[in-house]
Hints:
The complex is a heterodimer of chains A (497) and B (413).
Chain A: H1 10-14, H2 16-26, E1 32-33, H3 36-39, E2 56-58, H4 63-76, E3 79-83, E4 99-103, E5 110-114, E6 119-122, H5 128-135, E7 140-141, H6 154-160, H7 167-170, E8 177-183, E9 189-193, H8 204-208, E10 217-224, E11 226-227, E12 231-239, H9 242-254, E13 261-266, H10 267-277, E14 287-295, H11 297-313, E15 318-321, H12 325-336, H13 338-345, E16 348-351, E17 354-355, H14 361-375, E18 379-384, E19 389-396, H15 403-420, H16 439-442, H17 445-458, H18 476-480
Parallel strand pairs in A: 2-4, 3-4
Antiparallel strand pairs in A: 1-2, 5-6, 6-10, 7-11, 8-9, 8-10, 12-14, 12-15, 13-14, 13-18, 16-19, 17-19, 18-19
Chain B: E1 3-6, H1 10-23, E2 27-30, E3 46-49, E4 56-60, E5 65-69, H2 74-82, E6 86-87, H3 96-99, H4 107-113, H5 120-123, H6 126-129, E7 130-137, E8 142-146, H7 158-162, E9 170-178, E10 180-181, E11 185-192, H8 196-207, E12 213-219, E13 241-248, H9 250-263, E14 271-274, H10 275-286, E15 301-306, H11 312-323, E16 326-330, E17 335-340, H12 348-357, E18 361-366, H13 369-374, H14 383-396
Helix pairs in contact in B: 8-11
Amino acid sequence: MAIMMPEADSAVLARRGEIVAALRAIVPGEGVIDSAAEMLPYESDGLMAYRQPPMVVVLPETTAQVSQVLKYCHQQGIKVVPRGSGTSLSGGALPLADGVLLGLGKFKRIREIDFDNRVVVTEPGVTNLAISQAVAHAGFYYAPDPSSQIACSIGGNVAENSGGVHCLKYGMTTNNVLGCELVLMNGEVLRIGGKCTENAGYDLMGLITGSEGLLGVVTEVTVRILQKPETARALMVGFAEVEAAGECVARIIGAGIIPGGMEMMDKPAIHAAEAFVHAGYPLDVEALLIIELDGPGVEVDELISRVETIANGCGSTTCRISTSEAERNLFWAGRKAAFPAVGRISPDYLCMDGTIPRGALPKALARIRELSEKYQLGCANVFHAGDGNLHPLILYDANKPGEMERAEAFGADILRCCVELGGVLTGEHGVGIEKRDLMPDMFTEIDLNQQQRVKCAFDSQGLLNPGKVFPTLHRCAELGRMHVHAGKLAFPDLPRF
Amino acid sequence: MVDALKVRNAADVEEVVRAAIASEQPLEVIGHGSKRGIGQVTATNAVLDLSALSAVVAYEPNELIITAQAGAPLGDLLSLIDSKSQQFAFDPMDTGPLLGTTGRGTLGGMIAAGLAGSRRVRAGGVRDHLLGAHAVSGFGESFKTGGKVVKNVTGYDLCKLLAGSWGTLAVMTEATLKVMPRPEAERTLVLRGLDDPRANLAMTAALGSPFDVSGAAHLPASSLRPEVEGLGAVGSPREAVTVVRLEGITASAVHRAGSLAKLLAPFGAAEVIADDASAAIWSAVRDVLPFAADGQLGAWTVWRIVCPPVSGGALGQALARQTGGEVIYDWGGGLIWAALPPTADGSAGLVRKLAGAAGGHATLLRAFDEVRQAVDVFPPQPSGVAALEERVRVSFDPKAVLNRGRLRRSVAS
């Protein structure tokens, strides 16, 4: 394993039997799993290159149980890793050898649907898609739609601040959650926000969203729901050059159009997708854009025509416009299947997730081509073009010695390039363990210390999901210490009035 | 005498904060000072003035972002992005009319106050559009959070904490915000004569429709509320009006206005007001012009109450009846502006009892100093949350040198 996790505490491991018994007293029956065979499904999440069996798995069913488990672990100095559906692509739910894996899978009930206030109150183990399905009969849906939405849980979405293809127009998780019930590491149960449009005090809900399970365990979530747009249509536009496709994206945004979705694929991705799903993608283009407009029919028709004009003006070589729901879905089929399609042409692939300013796309792709040469590994690119979120898929074969390490080095270089171009390490998959050691490429020690001080406000002993997000762990006392500089009382050298 | 320290760059801010730590003297952090009248009454010997940090660092319309220093005049930024047909979709409130101050203040002040306008129901608030920031913490250290791209989950989103923190966590020196295209057209539907609960139902129907409503407000009939510019198009304050806004390309706004009018037919026949006249209505609602400092209700106490949207009508009606006050609803009932006849405690007990029972919370936005000294200006939190908030505050500013006591009466040093 290339990434070092915190050293296992042998004193805790030596007490395993006692700890399991104590947890069984809190969560009876089959809610505590300690046999190696039964813990197997929990030893990894969506970042499957990394595996680690936990010390024990606990699957509580009530907030009171979650609170008691955390309180016990807090008192005993035992680490805890929370887990939703285990679809994280950054290793956010990777267990620790000396840690309790706290699975929220049994929190599967939608507690309340309130159409008048346009919110759903749900337990965290409910899947993203199940929320939309529960309100579909009234024409509503939950907007963020990560591609794992059939499987991923809403609690995991809160932890990762999940996005999706529609987030340029409809926002990420953070823009669509209003409140939660949060259990702190010491077992304290807090209610943050609720059905109000805006919360009182500091925006703790905004802080918790995307905190990767390091601040608390969410046992209930209140999400906003929206009415489905009346209709949606898509264009599929091919370009002979990546630059032209990038220019087209810029001009669409510049014209004041915010599409419901705007996705780009490069040639290797187009070919892989087409071979897999036969969506009718042109194979002689360097870049393909799928642009979806949604809203009332009259608006969609007008915007489709404007986008078509812009695409023509950017030298598109092919342009197809969906005339039916079946055709629109076909356009998307290839894009949505891009990851498995790439999986067919390569034994393994690594999915990266940097964000860049949209305008830097040609530079980023050129750099990726150079790196592909350097590392002698193929790379297919899919790109949420609307919001600058790039997903290079690095192709490798884990059975060939050294290829995985090369792929990881290639990926790290791509992410550093994203930061150099003015972007960030991760747009929607999270830092987890995968990008943890790259954090100093984007943040200074002072930046990271401030973030860790905030962590201390929630978890003073650093027991909740340690080893994720932050490359270096500091004790809270050390972080909180104030280094008083030789203070000059009379503020020198500043203009006064 | 109050020391006014006009900083020139982030290094100056660090120096001033470090000196404040060493001397244990709290700083009042200001931009243009347009919102100094909001919050608990505080006393400091030193003012950290950010108004010289006024540059636009980068404006990239095609990237939908603008980066500017915290002291940049908000009015200038709004003009700049308007020149490219863009806007801050959260529609920041101008507190000037309500507080009797002039100018729109600075970018930093706007973020720190976090007061979004009527479009919040559709586009989110300030917190949803702040992408990144550079700031100096109460440790006297410059840090950055977030980034300059619209999609980013790298590290904790400390931007969310800065928005609406009233300068109590860190001194922002630079911020990057998302900008969005300005809609080509807008239409406002006007319904007349609805009482508050019925108007609440009409707004709920509109916001729960597929017509992408971007504003829903209700002004009850009043014999006290003055006539104000901007609301002329909807008629006299003696008659209740409910207004619902649709924005987008012209064909779409017109189409949706027609469809929505049909949906709202059970509430009466809707008139349609277009474009400039419509925009004037919404800025009057956003800035709560009927309660303006220079108007008839200028001496009244003003509360800003946020509650679950469908609870608004009953809550506002009860509050108005029990106090003899006036209310205006925005956010489909989820935001209530209440102007109450002045009392020693601003009727805080009653306001908070009613708001709390409805699942909401209330902020005292305008009151005389004596009132703001006597009551909690910002909503008191349950003890567990209050303790967590205090720990979060301490994680940024352990010596409470930044706007000490502005948010909470209990914060000493």
